[in-house]
Amino acid sequence: MAATTLAQDTVKPPADAQGMSIELAQYMARVINTPLSRAGIKAARRLTLDNFIVSLRGERQPWTRELCNWSRRFEGSGFAPVRGADWMAHASIAAIAQGTASHGYELDDAHDEALSHAARS
CA 101, CA 82: separation in Å to the nearest integer? Predict the structure, then answer.
Protein backbone atom coordinates (compact mmCIF):
# COMPACT_ATOMS: atom_id res chain seq x y z
CA MET A 1 0.00 0.00 0.00
CA ALA A 2 2.77 2.42 0.87
CA ALA A 3 4.56 1.73 -2.43
CA THR A 4 1.40 2.58 -4.34
CA THR A 5 0.97 5.80 -2.40
CA LEU A 6 4.62 6.70 -2.95
CA ALA A 7 4.34 6.06 -6.70
CA GLN A 8 1.19 8.15 -6.90
CA ASP A 9 2.88 10.97 -5.00
CA THR A 10 6.09 11.02 -7.06
CA VAL A 11 4.96 10.23 -10.61
CA LYS A 12 3.05 13.13 -12.09
CA PRO A 13 2.27 13.66 -15.76
CA PRO A 14 3.70 16.81 -17.31
CA ALA A 15 1.39 19.78 -17.09
CA ASP A 16 1.35 20.15 -20.87
CA ALA A 17 1.61 16.53 -22.06
CA GLN A 18 -0.47 17.19 -25.18
CA GLY A 19 1.73 20.14 -26.15
CA MET A 20 4.84 18.04 -25.62
CA SER A 21 3.40 15.28 -27.82
CA ILE A 22 2.67 17.75 -30.62
CA GLU A 23 6.16 19.24 -30.34
CA LEU A 24 7.73 15.77 -30.49
CA ALA A 25 5.60 14.82 -33.51
CA GLN A 26 6.60 18.01 -35.33
CA TYR A 27 10.28 17.39 -34.59
CA MET A 28 10.04 13.80 -35.84
CA ALA A 29 8.31 14.95 -39.03
CA ARG A 30 11.15 17.42 -39.69
CA VAL A 31 13.82 14.77 -39.09
CA ILE A 32 12.08 12.12 -41.21
CA ASN A 33 11.64 14.53 -44.11
CA THR A 34 15.22 15.82 -44.04
CA PRO A 35 17.43 14.01 -46.57
CA LEU A 36 20.69 12.48 -45.37
CA SER A 37 23.94 14.07 -46.41
CA ARG A 38 26.42 12.05 -48.47
CA ALA A 39 28.46 11.50 -45.32
CA GLY A 40 25.31 10.32 -43.53
CA ILE A 41 24.49 7.84 -46.29
CA LYS A 42 28.07 6.55 -46.28
CA ALA A 43 27.98 6.15 -42.49
CA ALA A 44 24.60 4.38 -42.61
CA ARG A 45 25.93 1.91 -45.17
CA ARG A 46 29.08 1.25 -43.13
CA LEU A 47 27.17 0.84 -39.88
CA THR A 48 24.59 -1.48 -41.44
CA LEU A 49 27.34 -3.67 -42.90
CA ASP A 50 29.17 -3.59 -39.56
CA ASN A 51 26.04 -4.72 -37.72
CA PHE A 52 25.44 -7.51 -40.23
CA ILE A 53 29.00 -8.82 -39.89
CA VAL A 54 28.91 -8.67 -36.09
CA SER A 55 25.61 -10.57 -36.08
CA LEU A 56 27.21 -13.37 -38.13
CA ARG A 57 29.58 -13.95 -35.21
CA GLY A 58 26.84 -13.45 -32.64
CA GLU A 59 24.48 -16.01 -34.14
CA ARG A 60 27.01 -18.75 -33.29
CA GLN A 61 27.11 -17.90 -29.60
CA PRO A 62 25.43 -20.22 -27.08
CA TRP A 63 22.99 -17.57 -25.85
CA THR A 64 21.82 -16.84 -29.38
CA ARG A 65 21.48 -20.56 -30.12
CA GLU A 66 19.36 -20.95 -26.97
CA LEU A 67 17.14 -18.07 -28.00
CA CYS A 68 16.74 -19.54 -31.49
CA ASN A 69 15.76 -22.87 -29.95
CA TRP A 70 13.20 -21.05 -27.81
CA SER A 71 11.85 -19.20 -30.86
CA ARG A 72 11.05 -22.44 -32.67
CA ARG A 73 7.75 -22.64 -30.76
CA PHE A 74 6.68 -19.59 -32.81
CA GLU A 75 7.57 -21.17 -36.16
CA GLY A 76 5.02 -20.24 -38.79
CA SER A 77 3.53 -17.38 -36.73
CA GLY A 78 4.77 -14.85 -39.28
CA PHE A 79 6.94 -14.30 -42.33
CA ALA A 80 10.18 -12.95 -40.83
CA PRO A 81 13.25 -15.19 -41.00
CA VAL A 82 14.71 -16.01 -37.59
CA ARG A 83 18.43 -15.23 -37.48
CA GLY A 84 20.50 -18.42 -37.32
CA ALA A 85 17.47 -20.66 -37.89
CA ASP A 86 15.75 -22.25 -40.84
CA TRP A 87 12.21 -21.11 -39.98
CA MET A 88 10.11 -17.98 -40.01
CA ALA A 89 8.16 -16.43 -37.19
CA HIS A 90 6.39 -13.22 -36.22
CA ALA A 91 8.61 -10.17 -36.77
CA SER A 92 8.84 -9.50 -33.02
CA ILE A 93 10.34 -12.96 -32.43
CA ALA A 94 12.75 -12.61 -35.35
CA ALA A 95 13.78 -9.19 -34.01
CA ILE A 96 14.68 -10.69 -30.63
CA ALA A 97 16.91 -13.25 -32.35
CA GLN A 98 18.53 -10.58 -34.56
CA GLY A 99 19.09 -8.25 -31.63
CA THR A 100 20.64 -11.02 -29.56
CA ALA A 101 22.93 -12.02 -32.43
CA SER A 102 24.06 -8.48 -33.13
CA HIS A 103 24.54 -7.49 -29.49
CA GLY A 104 25.81 -10.74 -27.96
CA TYR A 105 29.17 -9.05 -28.09
CA GLU A 106 29.18 -5.28 -28.18
CA LEU A 107 31.41 -5.05 -31.24
CA ASP A 108 29.29 -2.98 -33.60
CA ASP A 109 29.93 0.71 -34.17
CA ALA A 110 27.93 3.82 -33.53
CA HIS A 111 27.90 7.02 -35.57
CA ASP A 112 28.80 9.62 -32.96
CA GLU A 113 28.19 12.69 -35.13
CA ALA A 114 24.60 11.65 -35.79
CA LEU A 115 24.07 10.13 -32.36
CA SER A 116 22.81 7.03 -34.12
CA HIS A 117 23.35 3.30 -34.10
CA ALA A 118 22.68 1.08 -37.10
CA ALA A 119 21.04 -1.62 -35.00
CA ARG A 120 18.67 0.67 -33.17
CA SER A 121 15.54 -0.70 -34.78
Answer: 10
- Residue 2 pLDDT class (50, 70, 90 cuts): very low
CB pairs under 8 A, 24+ apart, for 102-106?
102/51, 102/54, 102/55, 102/58, 103/58, 104/57, 104/58, 104/61, 104/63, 104/64, 105/54, 105/57, 105/58, 105/61
Question: Looking at per-residue confidence, does 20 or 42 come out higher?
Answer: 42
CB distance 80 to 93 below 8 Å: yes
What is the distance between the alpha carbons of residues 103 and 83, in angstroms, rounded to a whole number? Answer: 13
Give the residue ranges of DSSP H helices in the chain. Answer: 2-10, 17-32, 38-58, 62-71, 91-103
Q: Where are the domains of the chain?
A: 38-121
